[in-house]
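Deliverable D5.2: sample structural annotation.
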Amino acid sequence: MLNQQLTIEGRIPDGDQTKAVVIEIAMGLIASISDHDGEPEELILPGFIDIHNHGAIGVDINAANADQLLKVSRFLATNGVTGWLPTIVPDSPENYRKAIEAIDAAMSAQPGEPIAQILGVHYEGVFANASMCGALHEEYFREFTSIDELHSLPLPASGIRMMTFAPEIKGGVALTRALVEERWIPSIGHTDADTAVLESAFSAGARHLTHFFNAMKGLHHRNLGVVGWALTKKNTTFDIIADGIHVHPSIIRLAVSSKGPGSVSLISDSIAPTGLGDGEYEVWGERISVANGRTSNSSGSIAGSVITIDDAFKNVRLLGFSLLETSQMTSRNPSRLLGLNDSVGTIEVGKRADLVVCNADLEIEKVFVGGRSL
């Protein structure tokens, strides 16, 4: 029941340490947080938010129906995710329409269910640079010629709308302005933009970058590239795939330390084989192999990941970041990016009781979504 009252005891991140607390939950919200006079071993974290997810357990977001999306939501919740953005790769208008209809139906069915809540939609790569396509199918890429191009993309009836795009394409800076005016979250990615274009996009309202380092121009000591620009540009943020494959762990540590943990979000960029193990799979109309946790398409390119945000959390903790810093990267920072920080992302009185309870080894024991456990 949504109005049930619960008490959870454990330790929450507090600076470089943890603090023992008692959390009271009522009506799905955190009603109070008080000091605990004992030494509970369980760790309590705010629910993880995944802003870049293409699917899992055999379900591909581009081809999923509502029931399959809810299946993914249940799987994600068992791995600590309490909110997520289904992420669509470039596809035909008909497949876009079907995908959004499924997202809409799933969002209508999810309220009150203890599963990861679908928060809206993330379009990745509709307006991307073909030279930085990665595993995306460039035959579906577009140029921005008018606002009609944006309006042609179907959207759920409610929720977040996010887009990864390359500002250097024809009409890219105008697209940035249109995204901001139409209340999208613009994110720079699959891009080879130079500094002048990046500055123009920033002035137009683009502040975030998608899967940092991947599918973008890297850093050179005589050429900032997209990576160098983002690391040295104030008021920019980025997300990063912390699977140890897309980006070397030491480079993750360097980038996060340089930018600051408060400006970084961890993403999964997971695809349909996530949770199924190594093997050969049909994804996005092609064969994708998974071997030792690394995805590869027919050309040998990495094609998304097979990790969860829980995996990313543990990987980044091993790089030396504190529980609080890592929690910011999996919860607070993505909630701020999505404009949801008033209701989720941190453990505070009045916020939705989206909580992950772990043991001392960071293994998940229980997950609460709106105060309801799985």
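Annotation notes: The longest strand covers residues 17-26. The mean pLDDT is 96.
The annotation will be released with the project's public dataset once the embargo ends.
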